Known about the structure:
With 164 residues, chain A is α+β, with helices and mostly antiparallel strands. Chain A contains five helices and five strands, in the order E-E-H-E-E-E-H-H-H-H.
Amino acid sequence: MKILVELSVNGERFEIATNPHATLLEVLRNQLGLTGAKEACGTGECGSCTVLADGRPILACLALAADYQDCEITTIEGLQAGSTLTPVQESFLEKGAVQCGFCTPGMVLSATALLKKNPAPTLDQIRKALEGNLCRCTGYNKILEAVRAAGEKMSQEASGSSGQ
Amino acid sequence: MSELDYVGKPVLRKDGPEKVTGRALYTVDMRLPGTLVGRILRSPHTHARIVNIDASRAERAPGVKAVVTHKDSLGVKHGFVETRRYPADQNCLAEDKVRFVGEEIAAVAAVDEYAAEEALELIHVEYEPLRAVFDPEEAMERDAPEIHPSHPKVREPFRNIAGKTESSWGDVEKGFDDSYLVLENRFDSHLRTHGYLEPQATLASFEPAGKLNVWTSSQGPFIKRSKLAKTLGLPMSAVRIHKAYVGGAFGGKIDLFGHEYCASLLSMKAGRPVKIVATREEVFTAYRHGQPLIVHVKTGVKKDGTLVAQRFRVINNCGAYRGSGVVVIFLAWGFAMLPYRIPNLEYEGYAVYTNNPVRAPQRGHGAPQMRFAVESQLDMIAEQLGIDPIEIRLKNARQPGEELPNGDNVHNCGLADCIRKAAEHTEFKQKYGKSRQTPESAGRYRRGIGIGVSSYFGGSLIYPNSSSVVVKMNDDGTAILLTGAMDIGQGAETILTQIVAEEIKVPVEEIQVIAADTESTPIDIGSWISGNAYVSGNAARVAGAEVRAKLIEIAADEMEARQEDIVLENKTAYVKGSPDRRIPYSELVAASVRKRRGDSIIGNGHWRTMRDEPHHPSLATTKGRWSENYAFDAQVAEVEVDTETGKARLLRAVTAHDCGFPINPLLVEGQVDGQVSMALGHAFLEEVLMKDGRTLNPNWLEYKMPSIHNMAVSEHLDVVTESYEVGRPYRTKEVGEGYVSAILAAIANAVYDAVGVRLFSTPFSPEKILQALGKLK
């Protein structure tokens, strides 16, 4: 038996007929074609499936789609306005924080959520925010640098625009 | 030396924007209309005879479109190594026997995963369980259950020998007699998984006209094409491997895997696309991990620390089929003899069948295990002789231009410089030994410092043996690079583009890369024997050089100047001394088409390492050339040990590396950092726990991979021994897997320096450290 789930994803409303037990990740990937969120473990251990629910990072592989009908879901595909990269995305590129890229969407979203709340986090705060996202390629040093650099960039942009 | 515009620079990766925006499509993201879900039935037994397989109920189940068992296959076996000495030994689908838990028995394709999984339960397999053996030394005993007959060429009366490597030079016994000090030790290593985030996955689509299209998470499409064609009985030209992004591999995605074969066979039978994605639990329990080695090493030295003789006996637990087990015992010889001069050496390595899952190459492929053994013992020797760890290494380090016993040359080997730089940068000599001199009352936390060295080859001769590259100019003066290279995250596409950019002086952003497709791109050696930057890189350089020559020729013609006076720069040509008058490439391409009877300017290049060697060295005797590039490194670890809990952690890793000419320093750093992190996991966190052939911790909760909390400071010191000159072959060595090894040994040596505990096996667990401290009964 299927149920109708209404989701708001990246600013668009969707009505989706799905199994009651379908996870948010299954719906995003298989029904909406938003494959940026990845499934690497399916059991909430690696963070590759991270998406934002009302700005908070959640593990889409453990979330039931039906439970998120009142939230605004943001996936990696919905992060940018137009084709300009966000400061976090830019910094990940510039600092060499991307290798195979499989963890990258989740990392970028976790970092974005952190910097929205706290644009000048300490290293420990960054570690805390990214502790649920595994990366096998980079050893994390460059990811840490990238998040710090993105925070600085965002603070500068914010102070620059407020000064105008 | 000419000025370099694009190589040697931290150019941003070409695939970066796709990856940070989530647009990069990996195999797990691929879907075609009508795609069926495939699932594999795996053996629940460690060793059993298959009496009967009845799949008839599954075939009739609702939603099931195809079921395959051994009866549907051609019975062609496959293996990582397929040579006369070591023929393929593994069925794609089990026939009369299963030899490990997880071995593929049947596969189904159904309309959805529920139907597929229900169908698996309807396949009835009748087994007759057999006695099994899991420990390699037990498996060698005469009364051990026979998994496969021992290799016919092995003389010793051991059971289950998949293969043996033997090599020697000098007179080892005399060497030991002449030595001032002789030590003999055994070092053990443990089982670790690769930890690639993207699970193993394949989408296969067989077209009615006879073409099999495959997307698969791999380390090179050409080896997959060759093995799929062979096992499926298709002409190679009927199999096309398409490009997909790859979410990490680390050696674990080279071989032919059951899901690749089954997805293809199911698609051929069902006439629809079939996709199989392994669960993480399957990856942990049934797929191929690295190879734990037992390393016996006996070493004799002079009073001043000069190595005189070394004898190795290595035993590899290679699982139920040969896999790369016989490659590891060859490579272990190489990693033992590479960094230091050893005048007398005797080596024997055995690959032993056990009823464990098959093993694969894993970043370093035997080097971490060997360097851990040799470097640990070298520190023990140094201490007994009263020599410091730096001096004993400098004394024995290979020097530039030295010839190896197999005829290879180390060329501009920078090992001694690496050792010196790493030691100076970390103030090694000032720090070493301090912790052990301070009284116990000095505190619970002890710090220690340790060093290790290693060497790794860059490219060897394994199918497809060579790489070719095509570079074509576009009408607008930009270019397209066609390469079969597979970017697995290391940045293959980026560095090949940098090389072409340098040769033809077109900016990196304006060169489009088309890669890793067996039909639209030329053959490539693959991203798995550390040969990409050198073999594919030189092919790219040659292809670029052909384009450059054509651009110069037509520019000289157009500007009525001599060819040697033409300068190329940023998509324009000018005559030396008159940079104000430039012709854009777009005009040169048009002129070439007009005046050279349609030549739109295309270059092609190819490269093979060791062009005069007929084939790869003998895995059994080590005879024959192995590589023409050897990278060297010295790594220093600083650790902290909690003497109350026995918990040790890596605080700082310093890597001094001679990787030849670093094409992209940012990517080089990324490779080093990743390897330090992996070694840290190896040392302290990770272990696939198995009992009687079954995996006990098949998930990332119970198998701890380093998280962002476990990272250590990672510093890099370049010892650049090679240069890049436009139009000339360059030597770039290796950076992808040579740096997981010395750091592991350095960590072990640092733990000893901190608390005086010598570790003879990995991982360096709190239990072992506490036990050695006498704090655990």
